[in-house]
Amino acid sequence: MTRLIITVAVTGSVPTKQQSPHLPITPDEIADTARRCRDAGASIIHVHARDQNGKPTLDPDVFAAIAGAIRAQCPDLIIQISTGGRAGADPQMRAAAVRRLKPEMASLTTGSVNFPDRVYENSNETIEFLARVQKEAGTKPEMEIFDTGMIETAIALADKGLADRPLHFDFVLGLPGGTQSARPKQLLHLVESIPRDSTWTVAGIGRHQLPMGVLGILLGGHVRVGLEDNLYYAKGVLASNEMLVERIVHIATELGREIASPNEARAILGLSHPISNF
Ligand code: ZN
Q1: pLDDT tens digits, 37-79
Q2: Separation of 229 CA from ligand 1 center, angstroms?
Q3: 9 C-alpha vs ligand 1 centroid, how far in Å?
Q4: Three-state SS at 210
């Protein structure tokens, strides 16, 4: 089986320091976390930015500071920039960090979702715009899939020449308004619905992170963990990002699945973009 790519989503837009003291917020905190997760076995870091008050921001200067700090501590880690809309809905702002940094990877959500607190709106116009910006930057999109129909929208982007094949997907399960119950058969259906040459990873939300990760290992996919999606190691026990990476490495190793280094992950994902020094 292909080596396992572990993505760590260290911060996100929703968790707060009050909820977990382990949450990295500043560029230096994120870079320190990145190094510990890289040492533990992560090959991709999924990056969100916060302002000085800890609030989500799309400011490309903050993303540049984070990316520079990560690069200084982890020369080979794959940096994946979020283009998610929780920090602001304006498509131009959501694209700003990708335009500026030209990262190896960025997220791209191919549909709208009814989150518990708001609608996460991604019109076709916004999706195509963000895809075009990523293509122009030489950035590989990770298609963030909350429901089956979003796969078809991602494939349509490739058909229109707005994304290069083979596509890479991230299945997000366990989120109210999306594929909430995160049943194994739901993940199987998603996996069976993507083009054969695609790669995929799975991100379970909250208590679904561990079972979905284990299933991802067994099915030959890849795994995303981290505090963006789940603050707990077990019920009532707070996790750090590196604890969540270490656990997946341990389980994968026990199951006979070897862990990909960042350069092995680049080969698996077909990343050809030179590593930026920001
Ligand atoms: Zn994210």
Answers
A1: 999 999 999 999 999 999 999 999 999 999 999 999 999 999 9
A2: 8
A3: 7
A4: helix
